[in-house]
Amino acid sequence: MFQAPKGTYDVLPGSAFLAVRDGLLEPARLAGYGYVEAPVFEDTELFARGVGASTDVVSKEMYSFTDRGGRSLTLRPEGTAGVVRAVLEHNLHKGQLPVKVRYAGPMFRAERPQAGRYRQFQQSGVEAIGLTDPALDAEVVALAWEAFQRLGLRQVRLLMTSLGDPACRPAYREELTAYLAGLDLDEATQERARINPLRVLDDKRPELQALLTSAPLMVDRLCADCKAHHEAVAAGLEALGVPFERAPRLVRGLDYYMRTTFEFLHDGLGAQSAVGGGGRYDGLSESVGGPPLPGIGWALGIERTLLALEAEGVTVPADSGVQVFVVPLGVAAKAWAVGFVGQLRARGIASDLAYGDRGLKGAMKAADRSRARWAVVVGDRDLDGSVAQLKDLTNGEQTAVPLTDLLEHLS
RNA sequence: GUGGGUGUAGCUCAGCUGGUAGAGCACCGGGUUGUGAUCCCGGUUGUCGCGGGUUCGAGCCCCGUCACUCACCCCA
Fold first, then answer.
1. Among A22, A157, A303, A356, which is least packed, fewest CB within 10 Å?
2. What is the distance in angstroms measured between the alpha-carbon CA of A26 and the sugar C1' of B75?
3. Which CATH number fits domain A17-168+222-312: 1.10.1040.10, 3.30.930.10, 3.30.710.10, 3.30.2350.10?
4. In the structure, how far is the CA atom of residue A270 from the C1' atom of nucleotide B68, in angstroms?
């Protein structure tokens, strides 16, 4: 027997998957973010240059392959690079700004699976491209916050900081590197300090955090523009009523982030506690060969959101099932039932019928499990009298209704 | 890539110092020749993850292997 490949899973009937995927984007839809869908695979270089060759995501987690034309392609490890590519390719940035888009779909990273971490995982995301207006940062962050709230989550925390920009980050980075060089670090940590010193700051180990208490922080070294932007975003969030915590050691694993950076955490998930994250990526367009084009966005993890809902005991309605279930008795009734269900569905009434010629008792059980409000029981003796038995499954009351009036009763 | 844990029915699990595999739920049928959700009765489902070894005999002990899982790392 085959089983789903390592790190993948199947969405099965009864899952809240669709409701969560679309629910996470509902506030964005209401805010004018149009739907986009980019390919699941792209030119490998797009991710190498966009996400950053030194990141873990690119250097050891990409699913890359060569196609029959000799091109190097990669299953997308994240959504932003592809969306920015699509915006540039179709010149959307030459129209009115900002370009506001939303998307959802599978991402791929070759990591060791664990709770809330898959090799094929799903994200819902938004991007607002073309402006550096801090009010836009606040809107984007608030859209994610609202999405979690409207799904019923109450224990999501928002962490925010600023990563500076090319005017102030290089000097800070040097300062931090010099600071870290003065510490007694193990080999693996030294290597990380060399590749991306900022990442050492959010190491989970308490003994390392103890060493870092006096480390210099980016938020204390922001240039005037970055500082003004950062405070304007904070003011915007306060105005929108979105609570956040300042997290000066927050770091993201994708190179393109700068200035506003944020993460949504949930404590009920185990070690993978981030349910979403994002930030500003003003340099991304240029690094993939486009014009200067600022942008900000986020991606929320659908699987982790499902875990968070479970942890909080919140049930999100899955498929609603059918409203009417028809139970035919006998050959003539079966033929009538097939036609009648067709009429119901044509009117937009979700309906099903008992297949498989089971006994009446079994068919009624099927009706019960379909969660239908109404059962329509029809046998040859009913057809002879041109009636059907209409049963309200919520209270068990049953009445004979003329066939000609049946659609009326169920509409 | 590095550690730890676990693999028995569709699901959740029990199975004693080694002696021919169980429960609950689910599913199917009957009690009601045309009525579900409750109740009662009956029934189906297993290469005990896989391969080897020890033994008269292995679900149980040993070795290997695969899968799943949790954590590090990283991130959604």
1. A356
2. 24
3. 3.30.930.10
4. 17
Half-sphere exposure of A191 toward its Cβ, with a 13 Å CA cutoff?
6
Torsion sign (Cα): A180, A175, A292, A248 = positive
Of A357, A351, A359, nearest in space to A331 by CA: A357
Separation CA A374–CA A350 (nearest Å): 11
Protein residue closest to B34, using CA and C1': A360
Question: Distance (Å) from CA A329 to C1' B14?
Answer: 44
Structural domain boundaries of chain A?
17-168+222-312, 324-410
Give the amino acid at A368: D
In this structure, what token pair is assigned to residue A24?
Answer: 């996470």
Q: How would you class A185 by CB atoms within 10 Å of its CB: exposed for 0-12, middle for 13-18, buried for 19 or more?
A: middle
CB environment A46-69: b (16+ within 10 A), e (fewer): bbbbbbbeebbbbeeebeeeeeee
Which bases on strand B have an atom closer than 7 Å to a protein beta carbon?
A: 1-3, 27-30, 32-37, 67-76
The topology (CATH level 3) of A324-410 is: Rossmann fold (3.40.50)
Decide if the complex's ipTM is over 0.85.
no
Per-residue pLDDT reduced to its tens digit, A40-86: 999 999 999 999 888 888 888 999 999 999 999 999 999 999 999 99
Rounded Cα distance between A236 and A267, Å, is 26
Whole-angstrom distance, CA of residue A15 vs CA of residue A19:
9
